[in-house]
């Protein structure tokens, strides 16, 4: 059995902490057993490893998330990279082509697909394992997991199963209903024993490879990558699941939650206060998540979430917080990005009528990490080191640097820096607007830089 986690999506529902560069699964707001802050993807990968599934698991993700994945769960985790965002049908088609042509996986192998960010007990992944047995014991094309509802929710889709169960505890699927009203959801649960659709399903690889052939799509990964931009932007549920006959579902009785909105996420946070600030004792069921250095105080406000990041500030009643994705429409790019070597925060961004741009950033480089050996085609930079010590190379010239040093990097000048201790740098970039982002990278590791680029 192969397990594939789908990691995609934009960052609107948990704005301002999430953005186009940092989706919700990377936010470190949950607690592990040691009370350390972890992200959803770190939590889920830890559960997969605990259940002995890590060696057969992959993550399908976009190019923009590669660095964050490496930073949070390590470079050893195999990634299947989407060239661009095109919804779940395209992502799963690419996954099937990758396993078939690059990994030479048998067409009889069972592939299980699930989101990267479910909030579940570890035993949920034992149920995922059972999908292989269920699929092989039946004549089904698809095997799903349906969660036993704890209340009639209008936020989830529903699986309406048949009455009779198979020997392995599965039931045939009669139909689906997408996000009904609470009244209709109550009827589905009471009259039809309907289940929440948690987005987990399994199939034999041959089923999906055959589907690609039927649709005239390449079976080979490299060919599909080249034509990826032509694939429809549509969900796998709509394009495949709802059009497939012979689908079975295995009911799951345990805890499951989609932490897709601030009100559901804060219910599972171990601490009401993350970051600098205070919450008064008469503020009941109120959460503050603050990613900046300016303290925030909350007095006498209950059932509220306050989230603060370089991208903005959200103050919302928890019941209204799901509306944030439809409410915000700010014309700005991400102001915070997590990178494989650390992080970057935009402090100021000025654009001028003649096309010039001046951007000021605060950049953090983790101890032992380094940026690539690179040059900028159309921008120069001035670095002021404000914390830590490092090793700096410019056009092959090596020097030790520390807090208080100021470095000038002209256009088309090769440079790199490594943090001996955790570094923070104020970087002022000036160049020709959109053109100043072009970068040429020669080497990524510090070992390569030392071997090829130093005059020591």
Automatic annotation (TrEMBL):
GO BP annotations, alphabetical order: GDP-mannose biosynthetic process; polysaccharide metabolic process
Keyword field contains Phosphoprotein: no
TM annotation in the entry: none
Entry-linked Gene3D superfamilies: Jelly Rolls, Spore Coat Polysaccharide Biosynthesis Protein SpsA, Chain A
Keyword hit for Cell membrane: no
Residue intervals of the Mannose-6-phosphate isomerase type II C-terminal domain: 353-440
Pfam families: MannoseP_isomer, NTP_transferase
Protein name, as recorded: Mannose-1-phosphate guanylyltransferase
Domain Nucleotidyl transferase: 4-268
């Amino acid at each position: 059995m192969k397990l594939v986690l789908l990691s995609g999506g934009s960052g609107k529902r948990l704005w301002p902490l999430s953005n186009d560069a940092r989706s919700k699964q990377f936010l470190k707001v949950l607690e592990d057993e040691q009370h350390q802050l972890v992200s959803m993807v770190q939590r889920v990968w830890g559960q997969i490893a605990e259940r002995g599934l890590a060696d057969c698991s992959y993550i399908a993700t976009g190019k923009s998330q590669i660095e964050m994945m490496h930073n949070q769960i390590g470079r050893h985790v195999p990634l299947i990279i989407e060239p661009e965002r095109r919804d779940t049908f395209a992502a799963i088609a690419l996954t099937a082509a990758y396993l078939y042509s690059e990994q030479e996986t048998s067409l009889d192998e069972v592939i299980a697909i699930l989101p990267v960010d479910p909030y579940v007990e570890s035993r949920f992944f034992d149920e995922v394992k059972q999908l292989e047995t269920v699929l092989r014991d039946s004549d089904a094309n698809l095997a799903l997991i349906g969660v036993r509802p704890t209340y009639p929710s209008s936020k989830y889709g529903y699986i309406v199963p048949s009455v009779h169960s198979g020997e392995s505890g599965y039931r045939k699927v009669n139909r689906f209903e997408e996000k009904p009203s609470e009244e209709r959801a109550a009827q589905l649960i009471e009259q039809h024993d309907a289940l929440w659709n948690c987005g987990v399903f399994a199939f034999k690889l041959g089923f999906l490879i055959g589907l690609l052939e039927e649709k005239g799509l390449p079976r080979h990964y490299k060919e599909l990558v080249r034509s990826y931009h032509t694939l429809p932007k549509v969900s796998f549920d709509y394009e495949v699941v709802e059009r497939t006959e012979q689908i079975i579902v295995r009911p799951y009785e345990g805890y499951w939650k989609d932490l897709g909105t601030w009100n559901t996420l804060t219910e599972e946070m171990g601490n009401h206060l993350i970051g600098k600030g205070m919450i008064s004792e008469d503020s009941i069921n109120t959460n503050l998540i603050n990613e900046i250095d300016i303290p925030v105080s909350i007095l006498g406000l209950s059932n509220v979430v306050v989230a603060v990041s370089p991208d903005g500030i959200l103050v919302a009643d928890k019941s209204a917080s799901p509306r944030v994705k439809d409410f915000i429409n700010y014309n700005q790019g991400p102001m915070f990005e997590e990178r494989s070597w650390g992080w970057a925060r935009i402090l100021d961004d000025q654009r001028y009528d003649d096309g010039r741009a001046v951007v000021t950033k605060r950049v953090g480089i983790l101890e032992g990490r380094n940026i690539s050996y690179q040059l900028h085609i159309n921008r120069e930079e001035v670095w002021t080191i404000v914390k830590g010590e490092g090793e700096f190379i410019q056009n092959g010239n090596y020097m030790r640097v520390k807090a208080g040093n100021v470095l000038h990097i002209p256009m088309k000048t090769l440079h790199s820096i490594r943090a001996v201790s955790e570094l923070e740098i104020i970087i002022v970039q000036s160049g020709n607007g959109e053109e100043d982002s072009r970068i040429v990278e020669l080497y990524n590791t510090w070992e390569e830089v030392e071997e090829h680029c130093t005059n020591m």
